[in-house]
């Protein structure tokens, strides 16, 4: 699941957003299942979706993830428990669309997952 993270929130990219739809086209499941492109999720909502992989796009050096890391609920998320939380460049995953952005996303997927 791709998501923009900042100090105040976690904004998932569902399959209605470019990066989410790109991952869906590659065969990844959309755990968000939301008609909104960028739904803001609480930690509890994120745990309910239980993503297998997280691609985090931080807007700032410090994000809400730092706060969530101290919560036991965070550690129960499959992506976290299986060390499948990756920080990626927001410019490539969220702001850049089209061929160049897609190539960068694919490079990150292969680098991090080997798929």
TrEMBL record:
Keywords: Signal, Transport. Belongs to the bacterial solute-binding protein 8 family. It holds the Pfam family Peripla_BP_2. It is found in: Cell envelope. InterPro entries: ABC_transptr_periplasmic_BD, Bact_iron-sidero_bind. PANTHER family: FE(3+) DICITRATE-BINDING PERIPLASMIC PROTEIN, IRON III DICITRATE-BINDING PERIPLASMIC PROTEIN. Its main location: other. PROSITE patterns: FE_B12_PBP. The keyword Kinase does not apply. Residues 1-115 form the Fe/B12 periplasmic-binding domain. This is ABC transporter substrate-binding protein.
